Amino acid sequence: MEIRTARTADIPALYALWHEAFGDERAAIDAFFQTCFAPENTFVAVENGAPVSVLYWIEAAYQTGSETLSARYVFAAATAKDARSNGYMTALLRKARQAAAARQIDLLFLVPAEETLFAYYGARGFRSAFSKTVYILSDAQLRKNAGTLVQNLPETPASWANVRKAALQGVPHIVWSESALSLALRYSTMFGEEVCITENGWFNAGRDGETVTASEFCTVPGSLPALCGAVLEAAPAKRYTLSTPCGMPVPASFMAGETVANGMLLSVSERAKRMARTENAYIGITLG
Q1: Strand, helix or coil at 229?
Q2: What's domain 131-259's architecture?
Q3: What pLDDT sits at residue 97?
Q4: Which residues in the chain belong to E strands, given as ranges?
Q5: Nearest residue to 44 via CA among 79, 84, 83, 86
Q6: Sign of the alpha-carbon torsion through 93, 98, 99, 104
Q7: Whole-angstrom Cα distance, residue 58 to residue 176?
Q8: How far does CA 187 lie from the centroid of its chain?
Q9: 217 beta partners
Q10: What is the pLDDT, as a whole number, of residue 231?
Q11: CB 112 within 8 A of CB 118
């Protein structure tokens, strides 16, 4: 087994491995490779000259208080079906940690694809550090809190980055790179999600029958009524599932939300290791 960063010649094999692991069509894989792929940020396990396991990094930062730490999102980790249970992913995670240390990156983070993987990544040094609060509301509950609509901003990485910065002040959170936000917008268009960005908040929402699920629903304090109105206008439905940062103020009529762990962090640098421990930092988009 050889563990190394990717080469241009590996790309066809990486496409095939991605499709086998996740079932995505060519356009979805293209979107990633056109926005976020970098060979030096792609780690592969190679057998007989071909990649059999891979993980990708996407550039990001972690904001906590006044401190900004460099970060990399471990994304689309996959192993070929006939090569699983041979330790390839463990070796790749070890390599990624070593590379982060060598490049003076403070931390790595990821979103386990399923509940059982929290234990897998925990055994490899990651700890739970990110969560969200999920509210399930009826149309009537949302309407009760809807206010005057505000003008939408262009759906661009820059406008999204600016409103994220305003709304997440004081909340430990991931600051996404422009390339990551560009990929998220492309995926939203590709998969039929509604995206609404205003000066004071934003949401991403997809529909499943009579239910609309907002994978992100976030606003600065005092601006929630406008965002509720925007959801009702853009995505009318009988039921709404809204995912918010933990601690985001909501009306009493939202009732109790459920706090859900959804991400893990691996401290690499000494300053990341000294960082105050938290389990309710906010990731937001997960790109998958």
Answers
A1: helix
A2: 3-Layer(aba) Sandwich (3.40)
A3: 98
A4: 2-5, 42-47, 50-64, 67-79, 107-110, 127-138, 173-176, 194-197, 201-208, 211-219, 239-244, 258-267
A5: 79
A6: positive
A7: 9
A8: 12
A9: 203
A10: 93
A11: yes
Instruction: Tell me the pairing of strands 258-267 and 127-138.
Output: antiparallel
Please give the pLDDT value at position 72. Answer: 98
Strands 258-267 and 107-110: antiparallel
Structure tokens at 234: 């853009």
One-letter amino acid at 221 equals P
The pTM for the full model equals 0.95
User: Cβ distance 241 to 212 under 8 Å?
Assistant: yes
Query: What CATH number was assigned to the domain covering residues 2-128+264-274?
Result: 3.40.630.30
Would the pLDDT of 288 be above 80?
no
Instruction: Kindly report, as residue ranges, where domains of CATH 3.40.630.30 are found in the chain.
Output: 2-128+264-274, 131-259
Tokens, residue 50: 């071909």
